Amino acid sequence: MAELRLDVAVPLRAFELRVALDVGAETVAVVGPSGAGKSTLLRAVAGLVPSRGHVRVNGDDWSSLPPERRSVGFVFQDYALFPHLSVRGNVAFGGEPGNVLERLGIGHLADARPRDLSGGERQRVALARALARKPQVLLLDEPLAALDPHTRDTIRVELRATLRELGLPTIVVTHDFVDAAALADRVGVLVDGKLVQVGRADELISAPVSPFVARFAGGNVLHGAARRVDTLTSVELDDRNVIVSSDDAVGEVAAVVYPWDVTLSRALPSDSAQNHVQGSVTSVVPVANRMRVTVGAVTAEITAESAQRLQIREGDLLVASWKATATRLVAL
Amino acid sequence: MALTFLALPVLAIFLRVSPTTLVHELSDPVARDALVVSLRTSALAQVLVVALGTPTAYLLATRRFRGRNVLLTVVELPLVLPPAVAGIGLLAAFGRTGLLSTSIPFTQLAVVLAIAFVSAPFFVRTAVASFEALDPTLIAAARTLGAGPWRVFLRIALPLAASGLGAGLALSFARGLGEFGATIMFAGSLQRLTQTLSLAIYAEFARNFDVALAMGALLVAFSFILLLVVKWLSFGWTSPFRSVPSSSA
Questions:
Q1: What is the DSSP letter of B246?
Q2: Domains of chain A (ranges plus CATH)?
Q3: What's the CA gap between A9 and A50, in Å, rounded?
Q4: Please, are residues A29 and A184 in contact by the beta-carbon 8 Å criterion?
Q5: Is A48 in CB contact (< 8 Å) with chain B?
Q6: Is residue A115 classed exposed, middle or buried when 0-12, 13-18 and 19+ CB atoms within 10 A define those classes?
C-alpha cells in the first residue's frame, strides 16, 4: 500500500510551517491563500528546503536524503521545462520515457522545444517528465494556474483521470477550491502554516471549522449573535437582519450560506425559504453558465436563465432568500 | 563630441597609411613573431581562465557562505590594479626569490600567467552574473529528477549559461590581447619568446612606425570583432533562453 507520512516543520518569515499529514494512494489538495506555505510544504517533501521532522514513504525515511535521492515527481507552477532541451530531452532527463508521451497525448511533440508549446502542452510535458522518473510520490504545485480558462477545464478533467489511474500518494497545491474539489479525494486548508481542516470537499462545505474555511469553500459569511427559538436558532446579524438556522448554536457565530443555496426575487417570495434579506445589487458577474449576483452582503449564484428573467442590473433592489437548513453556523 | 574623441585615435591608425601598406608591414619578422606569441599565450591563458574560472564562478553564484563578498572582491581586484602592481606581484609570487621561488619569470609561461591574471576577472564576473541569472526553479526541477550537483552543473547550468560564458570569454580574450604592463615586468619583451603584439608595438614605434601602426591596426580589428561577439552573445542568444521566473507561494 503506497503511503506518504509526513510531519514537517519549516520556519518561514512570519510564522512556522508545521504540517502532519498521511497520504495514502489518493490525492490530497492543499488549499489556502498565497503565502500560507503551500509551495514550501511541497518543497519540504521533495527535500528542496531544509525541514525538521520526518518524511516517510512506504516505510522508508527520506528525512536526511537530498532531493535527487527522493523518489518524487514534482510538477512546478510554471512547469520549469528545460528551455535548451526538446520535449523528449526534458522527459528523458529523469528516466526512460517509455510510452509516457503517447499516454499523455504528446507523442507528436517529442522534438519540439518548450518555447513552441501552448500552456496545456507544457503542462502535459511537465507531468510526463515527472512520471518518467517512476516516482513513489507525486507533488503538483498549482498545476492549472498558468492555463487560460478554457484549457484549464480540459486539463482539469484529464489530470483527474490520470491521477486516479496512477494511484500514487499525491499532493496538489492550489489556491482554487474548485480545482481542489475536482482533483482531490481530500482537501486540506492551510492558513499561516497550519492545516486548519482536512476532509472531503463536501465535508468542508457542510461543516467548516472556521469562517475562513467557509469563505474559501465559496460561502457567504455573515457575522451575528445566535439564540435558541423553539427548535431553530435565530441569528441577529450585525446589519440588524434576523435569519434562522437549523444548526445549534448560542452566542457569537458566523452564519455560512453558499451562493448556490440562495434564490433571488423582486418581491418577497411565498416559498418555504425562511430567510430573506433585501439589498441592492452591487455586482453581476457571469461564471461559466451561471451568474454570480451580489445583493448587499450576500452573493447568489443563479442560472443565466433566471438572471435573464429577472433582468438584473446593478443598483436594483432584490430579495435574497434561502432555507434555514442551508444556514450553517460556526461558533466563534 | 565624446564619440569623435573616442573614434579619432582609432581612425588615425587606419587613415595614416593605406590598407595595403598595413597588410604589407605585417609580414615584418617582428610583427609575425609577435602575432604568433600573442595568439599562443592568449589562447593558453584563456584555456586556464575558463578551466579554473567556470567552477569558481558557479560556486560563487550558487553558494551562500561567509566571506563570499570578500572572495568576489579578490576576484575583481585585478580589474582596478595598476598593471605595474600586477607585474611586481607576480614577480613576488613566482620569482626566483619570490614566495613560491620558481623559474617562470621571463618565459612564455610567464606571459600566459600575466595575461590570465589580468583578464580572468572579466570572465569570472560575467560568468557569475550568467549563473546567477539562471532560474533557480530549473535547478530545483533537475534535482527532483534525480540529478546530483555535478549533473545539474553539466546538463543544466552550463548549457543555459553558455552564451554568457562565451561573452565573458570574448571580453577576457580582448583584455588579454592588450596586456602590457604586467607582461613586460614579469616576462620581459624577448622577440619570439615573450614579445606579444602590445609589447612589439612599444618596441617598434621608435624604430619603424609603420610596423607598429600595422600591429596596432590588427589589435583594433581583433578587439572590434571580439566586442561584436560579446554583443551578439549577450543579446542575440540569451533572451529566448531565459524562462519566466517562478512566483510560487
A1: P
A2: 4-71+136-212 (3.40.50.300), 219-331 (2.40.50.100)
A3: 9
A4: yes
A5: yes
A6: exposed
pLDDT tens figures, B119-177: 999 999 999 999 999 999 999 999 999 999 999 999 999 999 999 999 999 999 999 99
Q: Measured between CB atoms, does A133 come within 8 Å of chain B?
A: yes
Reported pTM: 0.85
CA distance to partner chain A, nearest, from residue B110 (Å): 39
Q: Is residue B5 assigned to a domain?
A: no
Amino acid at the residue B148: G
What CATH number does residue B184 fall under? 1.10.3720.10
A15 in reach of chain B (CB within 8 A): no
| pLDDT at residue number A137 | 97
Q: What is the pLDDT of residues B184-193, one digit of tens each?
A: 999 999 999 9
Q: How high is the mean pLDDT of chain B?
A: 90
* Within-domain flag for B124: yes
CA distance A131 to A72: 9
Q: Which residues of A161-188 are buried (b: 16+ CB within 10 A; e: fewer)?
A: ebbeebebbbbbbbbbbbbbbbbbbbbb
Residue type (1 letter), A89: G
Residue B115 has pLDDT above 60, yes or no: yes
Sheet containing A52-57: which strands, arranged edge to edge?
A: A60-61, A52-57, A4-11, A16-23, A194-199, A186-191, A27-31, A170-174, A137-141, A72-75
Is A114 exposed, middle or buried, given 0-12, 13-18 or 19+ CB atoms closer than 10 A? Answer: buried
Contacts of B155 in chain A (CB under 8 A): 93
